Structure prediction request, 219 residues.
Amino acid sequence: MAEHRKHRRPYRSEKRAEQARETRERVLDSAAGLFAEKGYAGTALRGVAERAGVSPETIYATFGSKRALLLELIKRAVLGTEQQSELTEVLEQEGPRRIREERDGGERLILFAEDVVLRIERVERLLEAASCAREEPEVQELVGRLHRARYDNLRTLVDGMQQDGILRKGMDVEEATETVWAFASPELHLLVTERLSWSRQRYVAWLAVTLKELLLARD
Prediction:
């Protein structure tokens, strides 16, 4: 009998782990909805718990704080569907790898625009909620770190263009990175899609053409 119980433990353990993952995702989904609806200041962990159907203690035990919950949401949004795999960095994912491997400069920027727009769409509302929490110094520090991380990731795109000889001659790497950082920003994307009703396809085409004109070496 004892041997039989021992044999069943892995199954129970796997089931508990799966239930924990489902609860975690339900909490994240609920928090994402509330942050988008009410902003950072207007979202309470008790409200997240009620929407997710869990206790506030479960959220505290899993994430620790509202700020940590927001950070986890942003990480999930940036990484997208690959977040459950062993990949933990944006630059290790398939999209950025394909961008680095593309030899044609114009095609490289099209691939970049197609990849980055999906990340922007997932993260822009969360960043907007965080940026509006001006009375929360820790949240503003988090926003600053996220933008610096975005800059560093975009710098690899420009560094690769320079190394491959397709960056415009005389173009400063810092200036080029700042250009990409500005045009491929969640803030600008939110502006043109909301105020001008641009579609995803229009933004991707515009971003790729604009960066091509500004950054690529002339034939």
Notes: Residues 99 and 107 are 8 Å apart (CA to CA).
